[in-house]
Structures are given as C-alpha cells and as structure tokens.
Amino acid sequence: MIADWDDVLVPKHHRNYFDELIWLNQLYPSAAAFVFSRPHSTLYTASIPEKFNLASTIETAQISWHHLNTGKFVGLPSKFNGTWIHAPTRVKPGHDKMGLL
C-alpha cells in the first residue's frame, strides 16, 4: 500500500484507517487507488511552542467542504505502473481510481 503518511485521513465507516481500507478494497475490487477528498482547512495555533494545545487546535479548525483541494490517495502498487505523490499516474487495465467524499 502506498500513502502519504503525513496526511491525516479520517475513516468514515470503521474505527481505524486499516479497516476502512480493507472494507473499501472489498467494496471496489477493481480499484487501484482510493482518492480521499481534501477540504480546504484553516488551523489556528499558538505562536510559541509552550502555548500549543492540540485539542484547542482541532476544536477551532475551520473546514470548508465547498472548496476542495487536490485529493489524497492510497493505492495498491500491484494495480498500477506509476505514481506521483498525490495520485497513481498509470493504472493497469481493468482497474480504476475511486474518488471518495
């Protein structure tokens, strides 16, 4: 599995990322990759490390589902021949990229 590990992808149907991907792979067996929507987000954090508070940062996050950025993908290398950090570039015949909201 190839993914951009510094991204936070939140599962919608399962308790963890791994189970979500297993489920998606079973639901879409021809998928070479799953592209997760990435809404524009704004985070406000402390300007000095001593005042940083993760809970406060998450609670005050502003997320816009009306402005989507380039999606993030998780792919199965056996189903494509090339990749770029944000998408599989050459999906093998018989497989698809599945866009997710």
UniProtKB/TrEMBL annotation:
Primary location: membrane
Any matching Pfam family: Glyco_transf_92
E.C. number: 2.4.1.-
GO CC, alphabetical: membrane
Keywords carried by this UniProt record: Glycosyltransferase, Membrane, Transferase, Transmembrane, Transmembrane helix
Subcellular location: Membrane
InterPro entries in the record: Glyco_transf_92, GTase_92
Domain of life: Eukaryota
Topology versus the membrane: Single-pass membrane protein
Top-level EC class as recorded in UniProt: transferase
GO molecular function, one term: glycosyltransferase activity
Stated family: Belongs to the glycosyltransferase 92 family.
Record-given protein name: Glycosyltransferase family 92 protein
Organism: Acrobeloides nanus
